[in-house]
Design a protein that fits this description.
- The chain is mainly beta and about 325 residues long.
- The chain folds into two domains: about 55-235, tricorn interacting facor f3 domain (Immunoglobulin-like), CATH 2.60.40.1730; about 240-330, 2-Layer Sandwich (Zincin-like).
- It contains four helices and 19 strands.
- It has helices at about 5-10, 255-260, 265-275, 320-325, and strands at about 55-65, 70-85, 90-95, 100-105, 110, 110-115, 125-130, 135-140, 150, 165, 185-195, 200-205, 215-225, 235, 240, 245-250, 285-290, 300, 305.
- Strands 5-4-8-2-1-11-13 form a seven-stranded mixed β-sheet, with no helix packed on it. A five-stranded mixed β-sheet has the order 15-16-17-19-18. A four-stranded antiparallel β-sheet has the order 9-10-14-12, with no helix packed on it.
- Helix 3 (about 265-275) crosses helix 4.
- The two termini are about 30 Å apart.
Length: about 325
């Protein structure tokens, strides 16, 4: 087996996967300013309106339909939660440009308040909780301008025949397509059902079945708790090619063979990393090759790293990116 341990030494040097901060860390949801840090408290996420210290979301059930004509995702998010105090009676989640249609628990309509929006952080959705419940269902739709969702026309793809969608939740953009506690201090397991045009395949940062049939409805599960910024979805004319027992690549047909050849050593990288850091804990490690408009080198979404096609150089000179994204499975995603 070729030794890929040397690639791990490149990890600190390769920063393509990390986007630059989009918001001023001194512009919090709470009232603290750059000039006066006396209002900043350790352990508080100033880029989230959520209240996990009182009510913590632990699981997400997602059911969404992708409308490519309208550039809208619509459906429901069911949030299972735990009250941290007996007095807790309000669940606060983050939203951004979402159209909230209803909030229910046990089939009963709940009162809620959507607070005025902050231009950077979105709006707090405050839900009055019933006494006898541990989950709420939010019916909603995204905006065509959702900051965490990119809709591509066929002309913007490699195949030029079908549209494409991908999400990018890091750093605080999950709230633009899911109402949830959008903070890395909150980790959830999740299940999802995604409805698409029958010609397209949906994949997520979850357990993907490489042998799934295209039928317009796709089910996913993520058994390990993850922060909201690692929830990811892509829909397009995608095909799969295995590269090893636990590794493979999803790509448009025009890119699939070149991608599989370029990243053929991914399984060996996985084995070499296990020798250094211990067993891989996420079952499979697959790659998704995105259209060129994907704005980063790669994104370490668990089980399914999102990768730019611009690293398919033909000579494997840029595969250190894969080592970088793979390493997040031991440090950063856990």
């Amino acid at each position: 087996m070729k030794n890929f341990a040397w690639l791990l030494t490149t990890i600190p040097l390769f920063t393509a996967c990390s986007p630059a901060p989009e918001t001023d860390s001194s512009a919090p949801a709470a009232e603290a300013t750059a000039a006066d840090n006396s209002g900043i408290q350790a352990g508080v996420d100033y880029h989230s309106f959520s209240n996990p210290a009182e009510v913590t979301v632990t699981h997400l059930d997602l059911d969404l339909t992708a409308d490519f004509a309208a550039s809208v995702l619509s459906g429901s998010a069911t949030l299972t939660y735990q009250k941290q105090t007996a007095q807790a009676d309000t669940l606060i989640v983050d939203t951004r440009d979402l159209s909230i249609q209803s909030v229910t628990a046990n089939g009963e309509t709940l009162d809620y308040q959507l607070q005025p929006a902050d231009p950077e952080l979105g709006a707090a959705l405050e839900i009055d909780l019933p006494e006898q419940a541990n989950k709420v269902t939010i019916e909603y739709a995204t905006s065509p301008q959702a900051s965490g969702v990119q809709w591509l026309t066929p002309s913007q793809t490699a195949g030029k025949e079908h549209p494409f969608l991908f999400t990018q939740a890091q750093a605080v953009h999950a709230r633009s397509f899911i109402p949830l506690q959008d903070s890395p201090q909150v980790r959830v397991t999740y299940n999802a059902t995604i409805h698409t045009p029958e010609a397209l395949l949906a994949v997520m940062s979850a357990a993907n079945d490489p042998d799934t049939e295209r039928d317009g409805e796709y089910d996913f599960t993520m058994p390990q708790p993850v922060p909201s910024y690692l929830i990811a979805l892509a829909i397009g004319d995608l095909q799969f090619k295995p590269m090893g027992e636990r590794t493979g690549v999803y790509a448009e047909p025009a890119l699939l063979d070149a991608a599989a050849e370029e990243f053929a050593d991914t399984e060996s990288m996985l084995e070499a990393t296990e020798e250094t850091y211990g067993p891989y804990g996420w079952d499979r490690y697959d790659l998704l090759i995105l259209p060129p408009s994907f704005p980063f080198g790669g994104m370490e979404n668990p089980r399914l790293s999102f990768i730019t096609p611009t690293v398919i150089a033909g000579d494997k000179s840029l595969v250190s990116l894969i080592a970088h994204e793979l390493a997040h499975s031991w440090s950063g995603n856990t």
